Amino acid sequence: MSTPKFLAPAISADQLQAQVRDQELAFGMEVLGIGMRQTADLPPLRNNFVELTSHLTGQLPELQVKVVTRDIAADDTQFANFLVGLGAETSIVDSAMVLIDDAEQQIVLFRTGAVSNSTPISQPPSDLAPMLPDYAQNMLSTANGVPWSKCETLRGMDAYTGITPGRSRLFRNLKGPGGGPMDVVYYECKFDVDNDGSGGNSGNDPFHLTDTSLHDMQGIALDANQVPFAVLPLDRAQSSVKRPGLTDFGKGLGLGVGDVGIAFWRTKSSGPVQSCCFIYGDTGPANKLGEGSVRLASALGIDPDPVTGGIDSRTIQRLGKGIVHIAFPGSGKDFLTRGHKLMSSLVPDRFEARAKQFFASFLRQ
């Protein structure tokens, strides 16, 4: 889970850096992101916030804040060179617009130096099958039909915040439903709970939005309490703060809003595996992966509270496994209507059958 904490107004980048560092020390939790919050008041009230997750398990390198000038932030090439210039040992935590001296400024939040004392996640022995989590070793085995010999490793996925490193795979030109070609994307990640959409905000999520990227055929935003949907990170063409080298889901993998997939999870080392078909119904931060609706969380046996629930990055590191997502690029494009709003005829009750159809083909290669 992640927890938002609001900051006092900062008058300089140095003061903002001290505030962020103090948040980690005060709560004993790791900062995962930073941003600017604007209320619906008239006139609106604005301030900065940080996202904190889990408890620190060791000594993390100090967080640092660096302001990005407007001309560099507006140019993808210059911004990429700026990030590279921070050094080879730099780990980018986030890049966002924040308030400094009451003015909006682009900043990069980063750490320099290796992160210590966290449980490493074992890397796969080859570029073929990844090291599967305990609950998926039988279900997604070669014996069950998964063609691991036909996949390729997605190295560009490993730098996403929330990903389980070394386990992302892409299958190209498999035989899909009806005999046509089919690509498949496999990855493991954390789970933050999203309650955006038309279902209200009974969980009192301070980041709740009333809209989603995908709508039903009446133009109504999805209801996170009723529709199991997952969130796609923005592509580089949609966000100037996308980290260099990260795999774009849309341009790189052909996976977009409206496509379908299936997720699996089991917290314990034994017992029944929870699964749920989902649709990609919303978009989120460019550098973060692992967010799904309240309904998807409930179906997977994950605490669905949008403020205190979910499964954070530290927990998947400790467990050595993430929530498995198997997605089918292009599986929803024929059901989309594009206009003022992006609408899909697969919602609310047709995407499950669609996902099951593709998953069955995936197991028959």
Percent of residues in beta strands: 25-35%
User: What is the gyration radius calculated from CA atoms?
Assistant: 20 Å
Helical percentage: 10-25%
Distance linking N and C termini: 37 Å
Query: Which blocks of ≥5 consecutive residues have pLDDT under 50?
Result: 114-127
Descriptive overview:
This protein has 365 residues and is of the alpha+beta class. It folds into 2 domains: 2-112, no CATH class; 186-362. Helices cover 16% and strands 29% of the residues. The strands form 5 sheets. Strands 7-8-9-15-12-13-11 form a 7-stranded mixed sheet. It starts with a strand and ends with a helix. 41% of the residues are buried. The model is unreliable at 114-127 (pLDDT under 50).
